[in-house]
Amino acid sequence: MLLRCPLQLSSIRDLLAVITSFSLLSVYLTYHLGFSAGRLHNTDGSVAYSRLESLSYRDRHDDSPFHSPLLLDMLSKLESYQVSERQPLAVFKGHRALLQRAVGLYSRILRNHGFSVRVEDTSMPNISKTEHLTNWTLLLCFAFSDGEPECFSRTGFRTMRPQQRVNRIVGVQRVLWRRSGLCRTASQLSSLPALMYRPIAPTCFALPDQYEEFLNTADGPGFNNSWLLKPSVPEGKLEHLSTMQFFNRVRLKEFSENQELIVQQFLPNQLHVLGVPVSVQLFVLVSSVAPLRAYLYGEGFVHFRQGEENNFRKIPGKWWLVSQLWRHVAATQGSSTVKMALDNTDMLLVHLLLGAEAFLLVEIASLPTAKETDSRSGEHVHYRCENCFQLLAVEIMYNSSFYPVVLGVSGQPSLGVDSLNNSAPSAPLTAESTSSRTRDIVRQSLFSDTMKLLFATDSVHRSVFDSLQVAAEALNTGVTGLQCLISHDLCLTEDDLASLLASRREMLNTGNFRRLYPTPSGSRYSGYLQELQALMLQDTNNVFQRVNSLFRETLRHSTSDLHGIQTRLEHIHSARHGSADVSETFPNPETEPEAEEEYSYASGSRLQPTFNLQSAQSQNVVEKRDNCSQDEALSSYLKSLDLQPSVALDPPFTPLWTEYRAHVSYDVTMVRVIATPLHCNVQTRFEHRLGPTQ
């Protein structure tokens, strides 16, 4: 007797229908079922997560975790871990010369913020001495390094408590601080499309490692720029050489094969103020890495520089405050130019920090002590620099169109006192002493606002909870430990929630700082973050192998992962609490600095300028032109060419003609040329050159 299968398929069509039905059922079950990762506790009480244990499936129709009181309770507990109720203790370590210069200023400000102060150096007067304290809240390292071995051992990061902070981010010296490090970082990022027309730094090469690359570039067609030859350390002579002069010195073997030098493209069309080139020193506070949080201080210093014949050295005693520079620009070129310059500055700094973060993670993941094993799960728990922050001094220079580039980064800004402790109270006030006092007041305010931001104690868990409920409606996001579905794009961990709490707490205590990232306008960096992520994942040279393993093997999220929800939360906070952080206040254009104010301020009272350095990040600073075209074929044509005073052109202007002659009377000494392009997104430039001004 023959047995027949109860399911008979009469045709291929029936077979395909059955296969399709099973496929749809599989997709349906996958989409509607999720898992909740169980939480594991380490021996120190911290929480870790296992991908393999305690998986419990939940239907997606369960209540959203962002409306659950369990999330509010979780946020409250995380906040209690972050905020310490006992008196904070600050410990000073580092080079003796740096300590002697800065400890007086720092200790006074710290005591004003409720800190007790200790220093591990017996030569410091009037400061309590101690050795190897472990119960500190703030460790201030004064050294020209990442802190090891002068201040701490990196293995100590494993035992730090959530309330402890140290003013060093591992890898900053190698990635940004050293001239060669900044050069390599900028060179590696220059291939990204987002930086094609917005370079972070002038084209540069670290010799002798990049010697062949430099020769190929300098000898390339159309590359006729001159170069700045810098030593790899800040001290040393800077030289300005043409390409031919450099090749002649190479031919004469004037460069040692082991000598470390930086060859940097000379920035053409530098911004000149009062007839001389200037550079600007800005202060940037990085309070977190992965995810990134960064702030720009509202005041800085403008250094007037000598000409090419003196290798662009700073003119001693000739400087402005940054706020004075913007008042000068507003008075001479209009407020719209200031808006554009500030917006360009923000974008440059965010591009620098997001790009540098990728290489900082390489340094962190490469540490021998970067891993420890959880005693219960057996997993590797990777160290993240949760306790690190760093105040950076970024030296930038603008071209004549107010597009900036980075000249250098210092991880140990000079915040010592120039005058407050060095002049007797009865000494007469001179221009030099009052100038130094103004600098001192800026530095005191900078450090005071830094402490206020980092050690704020505001309760923000309810505010973050409310904002997450609103954000969840637009984002497909869950919470690990409460509800994390397979269909979710992202599941927030306790580390992510703690970062959101810290971000909100810092934002309520910015003082004269202004948030650079994340911001409500963070969507303009989405493309750049995607390019960075692609650079790390493709990793043709295996540079990011350990970083990729760190994020792949753990539940930690990168800045790119959290970019969407952070931007969304900043939108919500901004709408709920007003948009004061994106307001603009511009001075009266008639308030041009007087002759006696030509360089430095003579009074500390000018530290409260009428000009607000907060840029309108969400606004488009480029003025829209009417009757322009989006046709790419017209991108190289002019719409009009006007001369002031009015001068007849020969031949008369037409977009199809490129050469003209004009005759002016003998008494005309200057003619203003105004050229308007046909394409909406094209700018016209005079003396077009290859490089940053392109």
Distance between the termini: 88 Å
Low-confidence stretches: 31-62, 125-131, 369-382, 417-430, 580-623, 688-694
Number of helices: 15
Gyration radius from CA atoms, angstroms: 29 Å
- The computed structural class is alpha+beta
> What's the mean pLDDT score?
77
Portion in helices:
25-40%
Content of β-strand:
15-25%
Overall body shape: globular
Number of strands: 30
Q: Major sheet: size, sense and barrel closure? A: 8 strands, antiparallel
Please give a structural write-up.
With 694 residues, this protein is α+β, with helices and mostly antiparallel strands. Helices cover 32% and strands 19% of the residues. Strands 14, 15, 16, 17, 18, 21, 22 and 26 form an 8-stranded antiparallel sheet that branches. A 5-stranded parallel sheet has the order 7-6-5-8-9, covered by helices on one side. Strand 19 and strand 20 (380-382) form a beta hairpin. Helix 2 (69-82) packs across helix 11, helix 3 packs across helix 10 and helix 9 (335-365) runs parallel beside helix 13 (526-538). It is globular and about 85 Å long.
